[in-house]
Amino acid sequence: MEPRRVGEHDADAVTEIFTLAFHDDPTWSWAFPDSGKRIEQHRRWWGLHMHSAVPYGWVWITEDGAAASLWIPAGKPELSDEDEQKVEPILREILGSHADDVMSLLESFDSNHPTDRPHYYLSLLGTHPDHRGKGAGMGLLAANLALLDEMGMPTYLESSNRGNDHRYERLGYSQIGEFAAPGGKPSVACMWRDPR
User: Fold this and answer.
1) Element (H, E) at 71
2) DSSP string, 79-144
3) Per-residue pLDDT tens for 57-90?
4) Which one of 45, 57, 82, 113 is most buried, by most CB atoms within 10 A?
5) pTM
6) Which of 99, 114, 135 is nearest to 191 (CA)?
7) Domains of the chain with CATH codes
8) Is 152 helix (H, G, I), strand (E, B) or coil?
């Protein structure tokens, strides 16, 4: 089954995949610690990222809706200027004083992101919980990488759940760095892959 590109009409459905996929992620559950409010908070957070990314034409979903990926093309910002201005107000509204720590975490994402050569950035890869453990996410990633290899493009991602590092390594990624949330945990791996 070939994955398909996501347009505005199915952006909400893909936001929901990311919302559910990252619910128990070590990094993003640390960022949004109230499990009772996390679903709604993630909808707003990942919805903001979808809003900026869909126009690039590099958000993908499997035909059965099991997994989705959100890529930022080389040289493009992850968030539009307009959406970037919403980050801190949204975090302060939904997280209160914890927003300070989350803003520090986001700064670590930015400061560890390589800037020395053009690449595609895998901002999000998520599998719907009903389909977890069947290879849907890695299958989608492999299909995306095949296209990017044809384009001669290196790629970069952050592994916010270190239990997935070996899965990325199997597809050719190597760890080039790591950072941690304020307080030292959880840690995030920075991973790079040259085209094949």
Assistant:
1) strand 67-72
2) S-HHHHHHHHHHHHHHHGGGHHHHHHHHHHHHHHS--SS--EEEEEEEE-GGGTTSSHHHHHHHHH
3) 999 999 999 999 999 999 999 999 999 999 999 9
4) 45
5) 0.96
6) 114
7) 4-193 (3.40.630.30)
8) coil
